[in-house]
Amino acid sequence: FLLRRTKEQVAPDLPEKxxxxxxxxxxxxxxxxxxxIRDSISSSLFLNxxxxxxxxxxxxxxxxxxxxxxxCDSPLLLPxxxxxxxxxxxTSTLMDELMYNLGSHKAIVFSQFTVMLDLLAEECTNRxxxxxxxxxxxxxxxxxxxxxxxxxxxxxxRVFLISLKAGxxxxxxxxxxxxxxxxxxxxxxxxxxxxxxxxxxxxxKKVFAYKMVxxxxxxxxxxxxxxxxxxxxxxxxxxxxxxVKSLSEDDIAYLFS
Length: 257
Prior knowledge:
Blueprint: H1 7-10, E1 17-24, H2 28-52, H3 58-73, H4 89-101, E2 107-111, H5 114-127, E3 131-134, H6 140-151, E4 159-163, H7 164-167, E5 178-181, H8 188-195, E6 207-214, H9 218-228, H10 240-245, H11 249-255
Parallel strand pairs: 1-6, 2-4, 2-5, 3-4, 5-6
Helix pairs in contact: 2-3
């Protein structure tokens, strides 16, 4: 039989871990952009569903969800001709946290979107925040060097920007005790793995993990749907396709309302 040991059994003395949602309120211009894109997607999507049926429209649903999630992160992720505003409440909220609330603590910022990490890197540079940054394209030796430096008590770099898929497993980043999940992920197990880069053997401080969510948007609704669909096996809704497969027409109407 397979013996599964939980982290609590292996490392019973780990410090406390606190996970919470960091609610972000869009500016009026970002919300106006969000609403107009949502309305446009919604009307074309339901015409598509009416014409092609729900099953054949799942790719369009996925694309619609992706686009709205990008608006939540930053309108700068959209094509240039759709960027009617550049406000990003998440970017400004995160920068405030890193500049004014972090003190001498170290933080990891995860995003699914590599372009978003590039934008955050630019913001950090503009504000004089020292950081490391890697994604799936970063060579392993560079990645290892950055991790080693970040883990060193003598290193003053306080922020690590990491692509969720590139860095959610296998890394030991116990020098950090703050984690920011810039965009909520469908699969809570993937999010947990990301947070646990810090909350593992070797961690001596309490860990604080923040899931950044734009209020009254598809991000909040995805969280609510996940809670409603908890009975679905985690692997079924593990990736975007699985999550979308599990959606009924009512769910889709709710997401795009």
